[in-house]
């Protein structure tokens, strides 16, 4: 949890190696899955790897947050409690959790952060979570600047920090409020196994069964990018800026972390009242560019209000960037002109284009040749492309087709190499002492490491250049975590210092400084819940509260809730219910919203928010529209086979979870 004047850049990590690179590229904190119970089921890590990552992170005062953010059965609670202790002892700084049953257990004194899966959209819920002991809360991605500021105004900034997603894939549902995957496949998004039904193509039918859209990915969102909104988000109260992507590769984490590090550093350089939440500055070996990584094009979603163009309806794939057009098609290759004469193609580049059916077709290059043009120095704008696949497989590729590139091998190779250094600044002070010399290194956080060398004074051969030689030697901090801010020589006369002596002085001073930093390290404090227990904002909870174990039931009961339904995964909701609740509105995106029609001559009174139907193969879902809060509900019911399989599994493996009954 950063202090109220500190900004925290929070990066994802699939594994410890990626986490280390995130820190090296400027992350103030990293979130990563532990051995189990994370909302990305296949992104777990051993306790040993957590320990390795925390050891590296703490060198820079960076923090490691471990995800424990699935809903848990009763028979899983003890395993989750043990895991919490294991990662705490490995040095983890916080747990990111969804299940309130965990607060009823004997957890270690580790800081708790409320996952985005807890669906925090209102000041009342945010305040409640602060008062029950959460130090950081991840707000819903759908909030506007004004709504974020409303949450800020209800919180105590010294007790609870606002965290907000600024980049990456967008879940179309309010997080924690999507059950389509469980209803259709038995794989619960709240248990880290989402089947991503939102990325499928659907036929959209109106209330009369007429086609409104054909094979459209109407639930697929573009990717989040808040690069232009960081200043306003800071003003609205955000202090932890979160990058999505625990499934993403190292190149993505390097690039996107570095991108936002530069943007936040620029803001902090202009606003001295703000500070970084960790130590050190980053020196990059490349220029960050979010367009180079997989993306479905970008949106800032609802931060600046509702917009029509937030969906990736044509494809959930990465269309890349337009780079040129086809000028000639041959039997085994095609030729293309690039829009920029200096743009280079490489063997292995990923190219693609849209065919006549508006489908994205891949055309990965096997080999490329630059075709020389008269009067052009260096690479020309004309290229011959030999694709990996046969030309006959490239449907609708013809003269004039616009070519996109969604993978640059030159970029890939750049990020496969070492691409960043992170160093903490130190003031270097060399002085005389009884019997020799003393070296002091004082870092940017005020820690000091000292060393001494017993050495008789000896005059240098080149007195005029002696000081310069000493400064050069003192600046050689090599592969350490430090770089000199300033070097001062407090010497009464020129000295000759043997290289071996100077090397030992530097090495011992760096070691002493590292020891001082380690000794000064402090764990984040665990917030205390308000006593007596504060009441939950509502006295009734439906399946949408995701209560899946008896400890979670006890938690809400202790906070004044009278009626507590079981989680959808308890499989007690056998009829049609809302399987997804979202702020995205298909009617609005297709220009069929009644509010859009107001004032339009000829349509007044004829456009109504009637239900629509989504069809994908045998799967059918109904869209219902709640226009007052401007929300859409995707309605359906659980498959009979899923109900039967769940009952068999519970019986065979003695699974225990909360089910509401009249006794509750």
TrEMBL record:
Query: Boundaries of each Peptidase U32 collagenase domain copy?
Result: 405-517
InterPro entries per record: Pept_U32_collagenase, Peptidase_U32, RNA/ubiquinone_mod_enzymes
Q: Transmembrane residues, as ranges?
A: none
Q: PANTHER family, from UniProt? A: 23S RRNA 5-HYDROXYCYTIDINE C2501 SYNTHASE, PEPTIDASE U32 FAMILY
Q: What is this protein called?
A: Collagenase-like PrtC family protease
């Amino acid at each position: 949890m950063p202090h109220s004047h500190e900004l925290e850049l929070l990066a994802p990590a699939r594994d410890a190696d990626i986490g280390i690179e995130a820190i090296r590229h400027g992350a103030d904190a990293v979130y990563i899955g532990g051995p189990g119970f994370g909302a990305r089921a296949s992104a777990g890590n051993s306790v040993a790897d957590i320990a390795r990552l925390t050891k590296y992170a703490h060198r820079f005062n960076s923090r490691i947050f471990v995800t424990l953010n699935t809903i848990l059965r009763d028979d899983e609670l003890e395993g989750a409690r043990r895991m919490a202790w294991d990662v705490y002892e490995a040095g983890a700084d916080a747990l990111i959790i969804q299940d309130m049953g965990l607060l009823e257990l004997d957890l270690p004194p580790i800081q708790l952060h409320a996952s985005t899966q807890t669906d925090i959209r209102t000041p009342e819920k945010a305040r409640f979570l602060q008062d029950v002991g959460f130090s950081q809360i991840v707000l819903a991605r759908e909030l506007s600047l004004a709504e974020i500021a409303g949450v800020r105004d209800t919180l105590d900034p010294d007790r609870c920090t606002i965290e907000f997603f600024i980049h990456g894939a967008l879940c179309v549902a309010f997080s924690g409020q999507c059950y389509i995957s469980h209803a259709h496949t038995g794989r619960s998004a709240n248990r880290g196994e989402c089947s991503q039904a939102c990325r499928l193509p659907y036929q959209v039918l109106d209330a009369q069964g007429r086609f409104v859209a054909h094979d459209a990915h109407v639930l697929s969102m573009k990717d989040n990018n808040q690069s232009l909104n960081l200043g306003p988000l800071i003003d609205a109260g955000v202090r932890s800026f979160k990058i999505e992507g625990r499934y993403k590769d190292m190149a993505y984490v390097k690039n996107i972390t570095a991108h936002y590090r530069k943007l936040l550093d620029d803001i902090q350089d202009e606003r001295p009242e703000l500070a970084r939440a960790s130590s050190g500055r980053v020196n990059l070996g490349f220029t960050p560019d979010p367009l180079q990584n997989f993306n479905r094009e970008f949106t800032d979603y609802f931060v600046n209000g509702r917009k029509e163009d937030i969906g990736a309806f044509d494809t959930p794939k990465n269309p890349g960037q337009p780079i040129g057009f086809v000028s000639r098609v041959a039997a085994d290759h095609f030729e293309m002109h690039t829009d920029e004469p200096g743009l280079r193609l490489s063997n292995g580049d990923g190219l693609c284009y849209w065919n006549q059916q508006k489908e994205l077709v891949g055309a990965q290059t096997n080999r490329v040749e630059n075709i020389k043009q008269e009067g052009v120095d260096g690479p020309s704008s004309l290229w011959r492309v030999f694709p990996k696949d046969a030309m006959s497989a490239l449907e609708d590729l013809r003269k004039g087709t616009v070519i996109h590139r969604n993978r640059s091998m030159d970029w890939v190779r750049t990020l496969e190499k070492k691409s960043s250094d992170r160093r903490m600044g130190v003031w270097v002070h060399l002085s005389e002492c009884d019997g020799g010399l003393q070296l002091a290194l004082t870092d940017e956080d005020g820690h000091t490491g000292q060393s001494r060398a017993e050495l008789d004074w000896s005059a240098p051969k080149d007195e005029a250049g002696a000081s310069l030689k000493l400064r050069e030697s003192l600046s050689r901090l090599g592969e350490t975590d430090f770089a000199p801010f300033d070097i001062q020589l407090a010497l009464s006369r020129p000295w000759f210092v043997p290289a071996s002596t100077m090397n030992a002085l530097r090495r011992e001073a760096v070691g002493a400084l590292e020891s001082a930093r380690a000794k000064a390290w402090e764990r984040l404090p665990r917030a205390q819940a308000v006593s007596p227990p504060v009441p939950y904002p509502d006295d009734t909870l439906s399946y949408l509260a995701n209560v899946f174990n008896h400890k979670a039931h006890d938690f809400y009961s202790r906070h004044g809730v009278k009626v507590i339904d079981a989680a959808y995964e308890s499989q007690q909701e056998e009829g049609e219910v809302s399987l997804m609740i979202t702020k995205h509105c298909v009617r609005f995106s297709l220009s069929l919203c009644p509010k859009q029609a107001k004032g339009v001559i000829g349509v007044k009174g004829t456009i109504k928010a009637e239900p629509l139907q989504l069809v994908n193969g045998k799967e059918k879902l109904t869209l219902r529209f709640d226009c007052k809060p401007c929300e859409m509900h995707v309605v359906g019911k659980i498959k009979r086979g899923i109900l039967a399989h769940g009952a068999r599994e519970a019986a065979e493996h003695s699974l225990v979870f909360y089910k509401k009954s009249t006794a509750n």
